[in-house]
Specification:
By secondary structure, this protein is mainly α. It has helices at 12-20, 27-40, 47-57, 62-73, 81-91, 97-108, 124-134, 140-154, 162-173, 179-199. Helix 2 (27-40) packs across helix 10 (179-199) and helix 3 (47-57) runs parallel beside helix 10 (179-199).
């Protein structure tokens, strides 16, 4: 059962779990996935949400709104860092954590899964998901994640963000490397549609900007 009393299989999280991993679901893990979906549904006027609202302002239908949002989300700087984070986490099984962090910083220019411009003191979404994941029980993959976080903290790197939490959930649950991006997208579609419904009540085409020509 989920906290609101729904049966696991009757929830979106339960059905999504069955598509993302062959591993047996537990109530605690499904609740963690469910929490991630809720936390990721909306995040103010992120790039993809703005794109979705612009589409809605033209009175695009729901399919057009989602397509606009997914176009922005497909950029590597928005929504896809959990994939890079999973690749970094996979390296922890073969190299010392300090070396893995140094390699990631050199390759990406930042440490995937760490730092969030809106939350300079730490991403509260990551805190919730990671705490729920810790409560599901011991797992070797989670031990690697804890070492990763501790080493990043010793180097005074930014705090973990929700992409690390998604990568950790995928690692512990045996999901494919791009599962975090799938979870992020499915959750955010709900938010885009909510924004679209709100935008339909606003003046059409209100995002029409003007440009100043400089010869």
């Amino acid at each position: 059962m989920l906290p609101d009393g729904r049966e696991l299989r009757a929830s979106i999280a339960g059905r999504l779990w069955a598509r993302l991993t062959p591993r047996r679901a537990t109530p605690a893990l499904i609740a963690t996935l469910n929490a991630a979906l809720v936390l990721l549904a909306d995040h103010e006027m992120a790039a993809s949400t703005l794109a979705a609202r612009v589409a809605a302002s033209t009175r695009a239908n729901a399919h057009g709104v989602v397509a606009a949002g997914m176009g922005a989300l497909s950029g590597p700087l928005h929504g896809g860092d959990s994939v890079r984070c999973r690749l970094v986490l996979a390296r922890l099984a073969h190299a010392p954590v300090a070396d893995v962090i140094a390699e990631a910083l050199d390759r990406y220019g930042h440490l995937p899964g760490f730092g969030q411009v809106i939350y300079p003191q730490g991403d509260p979404r990551a805190v919730v998901v990671l705490d729920m994941l810790r409560a599901t029980g011991q797992h070797p993959g989670l031990d690697l994640v804890e070492q990763f976080i501790a080493s990043a903290r010793r180097r005074s790197l930014p705090a973990p963000n929700v992409d690390l939490a998604l990568a950790a959930l995928g690692l512990v649950s045996g999901m494919p490397p791009d599962a975090g991006e799938a979870i992020f997208t499915i959750a955010r579609i709900v938010g885009w549609l909510a924004h679209a419904l709100e935008e339909y009540g606003e003046r059409p085409l209100r995002f029409r900007l003007r440009a100043d020509y400089i010869g």
